Amino acid sequence: MSGPVHARHRVAVTGLGVKTAAGNDLTTYWNTLVAGRSMARRITSFDPTGLMVDFACEVRDFDPRDYLDAKGAKRMDRTAQLGLAAATDALADAGAHGVAPERRGVVTGTGHGGTTTQEAEYGAVPDRGYGRVSPHYVPMTMANATAGAVSIHHDVRGPSLTICTACASGAQAVGEGARLVREGAADLVLAGGSESAVAPLTMSSFARMGALSTRTAEPERASRPFDTDRDGFVMGEGAGFLVLENWDHAVARGATIYGELAGYGRTSDAHHITAPSPDGAGARICMELALADAQVAADEIVHVNAHGTSTPLNDVTEARALAEVFGAGRFPVTSTKSVIGHLIGAAGAVEAVTTLLTMREGVAHPTANLEQLDPECDLDLVTEGVRKIPEGPMLSNSFGFGGHNASLVFRPAAA
Amino acid sequence: MNRDDLFKAMVDACTEILGVSEDAVTPDAVLREDLNADSLDLAELAMAMEDRVGVSVPDQAFKRVTTVSETLDLIEQHLTPAQS
């Protein structure tokens, strides 16, 4: 399958895997999304007493020992454990691919790296001295730990890299992974994101900057994208991975194809380190680039999985950009973050998985907690049950701190 | 601390850090090959033994030992008269 560098191979998605608060396998995950109820609960991984925001969407019933031996699990931060597990599931979902190790690639996204380990070790030097710092601190906290783990466990000997663009990391990992397949650098790429940043220091900082919902009395009602009463995002954790495969290779082996990753756009706001550009230009141009890359016209799009964080600023800016690109309320939009929270560097990858499941099922899941649509957001949001979506191309958005924007366009396999 | 105490401390540290069974930690066991320890494990093991025994051994010296008994020899050399 190795062709000239300038050739552009089509990219098939042939495997999916998730670890989220809504489920650790595709069936449970989709069924929970369809139920349309938020998974935000009081934090259980540590005692959150006294924290400004004491709730999050944590992954439950995940045992790294299902994927790793005891020593391997101990030497990996939860971010990498979740990522490796989701990637392993995605690869199993893709079936027997027969791609040689040197033609395999991996691209992982994370916003923070090994947050739990970082925060657990902050006291190491002052408390125990320079000589008593764990040798595992660096390999467990480095942003590329998941990419390394996936490469080691799945014998990936081709290109491997890590994208670190905050909340756009997951979508960009998928997009950059697709580019590796397109340009012929690899025939199969495991692409996705993982994040476990439900940790005291990180949560406190997000809370202090006013980014998190403070609805502590009713956590399950806190993540409410595009609702008039939204007051911030809800922290989530988890991982999502896709198997991106050379289209001809996937067809030749009779693989089940979820869809084609047809377009990828990315821009930067060049505006503010945390706030989106108020005119939404970065987001708008990003979507336009993704459409152009996919050679899909704006009026062909049948559904958008929004970034939809539930912060006052993001949702109105994104809604404005969507209306400018596609026209107001032209197709159903939903926000997966309403159910699973904001997975930061994993969000875009998990939402890419969601978009492909939406394509397969022919229905979009509802946006949880959307009771009164913000009049500033002129969109047709899916609420109260699933909505049937016609067959056609779909778009997924991710926008990150730092002003990083990414949009992915998926096309049905039959098209 | 006598040789038996040192050995017990070593068995303890190896089972905890390397995830091996107590039976595997024999005096002749080669750390890298028999106990499957890599460079990170050896660094952690050195730190754990220093803590358990209360000695300070130069890092470079730890890198030269290959077996369990060589590790104990090295630690014994650094015990103060009061400790041995």
Describe, in short, the structure shown.
The complex is a heterodimer of chains A (415) and B (84). Helix content of chain A is 33%, strand content 19%.
Structural features, described:
The complex is a heterodimer of chains A (415) and B (84). Chain A is α/β, with parallel strands linked by helices and 415 residues long. Chain A has two domains: 11-252, Peroxisomal Thiolase, Chain A, domain 1 (3-Layer(aba) Sandwich); 264-405, Peroxisomal Thiolase, Chain A, domain 1. Chain A is built from 14 helices and 15 strands. Chain A is globular, with a radius of gyration of 20 Å. The two termini of chain A are 22 Å apart. The model of chain A has no long low-confidence stretch (mean pLDDT 96). Chain B has a single domain, classed as Orthogonal Bundle (Non-ribosomal Peptide Synthetase Peptidyl Carrier Protein, Chain A). Helices cover 54% and strands 0% of the residues of chain B. The radius of gyration of chain B is 12 Å and the shape is globular. The mean pLDDT of chain B is 93. At the A-B interface, α2 of A face α2 of B.
Question: Which characteristics define this entry?
Answer:
heterodimer, A: 415 residues, alpha/beta, Peroxisomal Thiolase, Chain A, domain 1, 2 domains, eleven-stranded mixed sheet, two-stranded antiparallel sheet, 14 helices, 15 strands, 33% helix, B: 84 residues, mainly alpha, Non-ribosomal Peptide Synthetase Peptidyl Carrier Protein, Chain A, 4 helices, fatty acid metabolism (chain B), lipid metabolism (chain B)
Distance between the termini of chain B: 5 Å
Distance between the termini of chain A: 22 Å
Q: Write down the Rg of chain B.
A: 12 Å
SS content category of chain A: alpha/beta
Oligomer: heterodimer
Estimate the strand proportion of chain A.
15-25%
Q: Specify the helix fraction band of chain B.
A: 40-55%
Report the sheet-strand fraction of chain B: under 5%
- Find the CATH superfamily of the largest domain in chain A: Thiolase/Chalcone synthase
Rg of chain A from C-alpha positions? 20 Å
Q: State the name of the first-level CATH class of chain B.
A: Mainly Alpha
Tally of helical runs of chain A: 14
The name CATH uses for the topology of the largest domain in chain A is Peroxisomal Thiolase, Chain A, domain 1
Count up the domains of chain A. Answer: 2
The main sheet of chain B comes to: none
Q: Strands of the biggest beta sheet of chain A: in what spatial order? A: 5-4-6-7-1-8-15-14-9-10-12
The shape of chain B is globular
Give the CATH level 1 class of the largest domain in chain A: Alpha Beta
Named at the architecture level, the CATH assignment of the largest domain in chain A is 3-Layer(aba) Sandwich
Q: What would the CATH topology of chain B be?
A: Non-ribosomal Peptide Synthetase Peptidyl Carrier Protein, Chain A
